[in-house]
Amino acid sequence: MVLGGGEAEGTGRALDGRDAAMDSALAALYDGAGGDRPRGERSAGLGGSAPRVARWLGDIRTYFPTPVVRVVQRDAIERLGLSALLLEPELLEAVEPDVHLVATLLSLNKAMPETTRTTARAVVRTVVGQLERRLAARTRSTLTGALDRSARTARPRHRDIDWNATIRANLKNYVPERRTVVPERFVGHGRSARSLRKEVILCVDQSGSMAASVVHAAVFGAVLASVRSLSTHLVVFDTAVVDLTDLLDDPVDVLFGTRLGGGTDINRALAHCQSKITRPADTVVVLISDLYEGGIRGEMLRRVAAMKEAGVEFVALLALSDEGAPAYDHEHAAALASLGAPAFACTPDLFPEVMAAALEKRPLPLPVEG
């Protein structure tokens, strides 16, 4: 179906009814908004009225499915400069919540009046809840399995033997005439299997380009903190470093504790993370950044080298989002790769497998580049 009337439509058939209403809703945003229009310049379609924009948002939610609504909303914010209007509670109640909307709200956090903050938190909590339902169960089960495997020993005490795993490991030693398996080696858990074994430090760049990654990192941080066998820290940074570990019980509090935008000092952030490491061989540090360093480049790389030499598993993610290949500093990515820490973009669905591999000290499941 092709929408659009008037001379540009070209078919000679006028739109009416629902089709005309759909075309009108799209025309308010897109007619004259593309091509050479400078980004952020307003069109005459929606104007600056929050009630009017709220009604328009209601229209597109009526006429289009949720994935289309999210794309149109994002275009409206970018093309028409509607960010300031998102500070109006009436408008926030009309939007379709998604990760990009949350990122925009967080960038406006400091300018947000108290009358809007409650509504904004409700929008953020809705998106966080959606992400947790999608990602939490699989993350916990994947990491629990990895932790169990990393705790296994070939010389367990009798009461610590994992009989199912032992039988699987010795099936080649099945004796038919005795109808039994003769175990050559036992698999089980050491006495410390129930104690704390691994530490994870998430170090997240909160510069503006990393907004979607910050949202996903907050959710994963809360999920990792709920795994009893992990000790999880969350550090966010721009040119300053903020430790949000104490807020991990509620990812919404984490997100409102961030400050999207500003510069980047990766070296300072890694120095803070390095100070938190007490058991290097049992620690995984995950740096989530596009690697555009405003601090001391050589010192940043020396810190990564020192951590790896001490036994830390170091993971560098250029993005943690579904947005595809990000822009990043290729020189720094190559330097990290030369230290044995390949930098790559990671989707939220792949992240549990990446963490499981890091916890087990095996090769990371790098995404296949298309």
Commentary on this structure:
With 370 residues, the protein is an alpha/beta fold. It has 13 helices and ten strands. It has a six-stranded mixed β-sheet with strand order 7-6-5-8-9-10, sandwiched between helices. A two-stranded antiparallel ribbon has the order 1-4. A two-stranded antiparallel sheet has the order 2-3. A hairpin with a 3-residue loop joins strand 6 and strand 7. Helix 5 (99-107) crosses helix 6 (114-150). The chain is globular and about 85 Å long. The relative contact order is 0.09. Residues 33-44 and 191-195 have low confidence and may be disordered.
Low-confidence stretches are: 33-44, 191-195
Number of beta strands: 10
Mean of pLDDT: 81
The SSE string, one letter per element, is HHHHHHEHEEEEHEEHHEHEHEH
Radius of gyration: 26 Å
Instruction: Please list the strands of the largest sheet in the order they lie side by side.
Output: 7-6-5-8-9-10
Shape: globular
Structural class: alpha/beta
What share of residues is helical? 40-55%
Count of individual helical segments: 13
Distance between the termini: 31 Å
